[in-house]
Amino acid sequence: MIRFKATEEQIQNIAVNAVKASQPMGAGFMVFNPRDEFLPEQFKFQEGLDGKPELHLDYVGGRMVKLNIWGKGDDVWETRDQADPEYQSWCRQYRTPQELLASVPGVEVS
User: Which has the closest alpha carbon to 22: 57, 63, 62?
Assistant: First the structure.
């Protein structure tokens, strides 16, 4: 796992970057529109079992994103430290989760 420091707004911007970098796969081609625009406020947090915010993206607008981010408190978050371009298609632009996190200014990876 990667632990990093970010605001909720920065997390939403990470989500935007992941979605924009992702490609349609499988049945996703049926709903994919390359002109779709994505805004940070579209990405809503869920409350985890521990009461902390979480963000889970699977397919968004037909794009295979597969991104999970868990809140740990005090603007500290975790995500998986490895990704696979066959599963997380944003890896074709951001080769690692660390590169995706670094795509948003001010995110501090520990």
Answer: 63
Q: In what order do the strands lie in the sheet with 63-73?
A: 46-47, 53-60, 63-73, 76-79, 2-5, 108-109
Residue 69 lies in a domain: yes
pLDDT in tens, 41-64: 999 999 999 999 999 999 999 999
Instruction: Note whether residue 67 is domain-resident.
Output: yes
Asked if residue 38 is part of any domain, the answer here is no
CB-based contact 98:2 (threshold 8 Å): yes
Residue 14's nearest CA partner among 63, 74, 56 is: 56
pTM of model > 0.70: yes
